[in-house]
Amino acid sequence: MGFALALALALAACSSTPEQKAEPKAPPVAPPRTGREAFQEMYVQARGWAVDAQPLQVQSYNLKQMKSEGGKAAVWRATFVSASLHQARTYTWSAVEDAENDLHRGVSAAPAESWSGPGTQRPFLLAALRSDTDKALETAMARKETQEYVKKNPGQPVMYLLQATDRFPDPSWRVIWGDSIATSGYSVFVDASTGQFLKRTF
Fold first, then answer.
1. Which end of the chain is more exposed for a tag (fewer CB within 10 A), N or C?
2. Where does the pLDDT of residue 25 fall: very low under 50, low under 70, confident under 90, or very high at 90 and above?
3. Which contiguous run of DSSP H or E holds residue 186?
4. What are the boundaries of each domain within the chain?
C-alpha cells in the first residue's frame, strides 16, 4: 500500500462521525376507549377462557397521565363468570404500558378464581349492553342537578361502573364523580340497555 493511500484512509477514519445511540422509544399508547369498546375486546378473550362466560362488572380507572374524558378511559377492568366452571376471571384493557400500576397495553387476564354464583350482583347477557359510556355521560350531564354539581366541583375525575343488581331491571352504567366510588359526592345511574336516566345519588 502506498504512503498516499494509507494517509487517505487514516484521515477518512478520523473524520467519520461517531455512531449515535438510538433514543429510547416511549412506551406505545393507544387511544382511550369507551366502556363498550374496551368491553368487547375483553369479552373476546373471556370467551376463549370459557364458552359460557358472562359479564358481571365493568369499571373504568383513571391514570394521572390520561384521565377519563368524553366517556372514554385509559383503563377498563371487566369481571366475567362461568357457571359451568364455577369460576370468575378479571380482564384488563389498558391504553398504555405502565409498570408502576402493572398495566400492559391491550388485554391481559388475571388468574381465575372460584365463584359460588350470583349475589348482590348478577351476570347479564351481552345483548343487554346497548348503550355506551359516552351516551351515559351525555345523559348525566343533561340533568340540571349534574350541571350544578360540576360547576361547584370543577376538575373532578369521572369514573364508570357497569353492574346488574336488584335495584334496576337492566344493567346500568353508574357515572361517578370523584377519586373513588367510596368517596364520591355525586353519581348518576343510566340504563345500559335503553340509555335512559334512572337515578342520581349524593
1. N
2. low
3. strand 186-191
4. 33-201
Contact 68, 34 (CB under 8 A): no
Length of the chain (residues): 202
Instruction: Give the pLDDT band (50/70/90) at residue 20.
Output: low
Strands 113-114 and 158-163: unpaired
Nearest CA to 109 out of 131, 92, 87, 133 is that of: 92
Tell me: pLDDT of 33 over 90. Answer: yes
Q: Kindly provide the b/e burial profile for residues 101-130, where b requires at least 16 CB atoms within 10 angstroms of the residue's own CB.
A: eebeeebeeeebeebeeeeeeebbeeebbe
Extract the C-alpha cell encoding 117: 354464583
Torsion of CA 116, 111, 48, 99, to 10 degrees: 140
Whether the CB-CB separation of 149 and 140 falls below 8 Å is answered with no
Q: Could you give the angle at the alpha carbon of 74 between the alpha carbons of 70 and 75, nearest 5°?
A: 120
**pTM (predicted TM-score):** 0.84
